[in-house]
Amino acid sequence: xKTLFIxxxxxxxxxxxxxxxxxxxxxxSETGMQTQWHHTGILGLVEFSDPVDLGYKCQNSSxxxxxxxxxxxxxxxEALVGLYNPREVGYTCLKMASTMPAxxxxxxxx
Length: 110
Hints:
The protein is α+β, with helices and mostly antiparallel strands. The protein has one domain. Helix content is 24%, strand content 31%. It has 3 helices and 5 strands.
């Protein structure tokens, strides 16, 4: 009974979390969500990987949305390993403007 109580308590206290950062409200001109893991340890106090360089990842475009997430998979890895605390980081970039010249408008003669 005590083991069941500990298991239920551990499952209740562990959970998934997601945080979004939105820079622009334009969602139809963004690329698809790209994801990668960010590696931290000791309750997230020590970083083992470099921060995501959005200037490089978006190829001189601007980022639109950044998502940090503690998913079931990263939580499972954290529970199995202990001091290793990975997070999933996702980002979207704004699409580059087209380099083709705009079509001239046709005007009606009066």
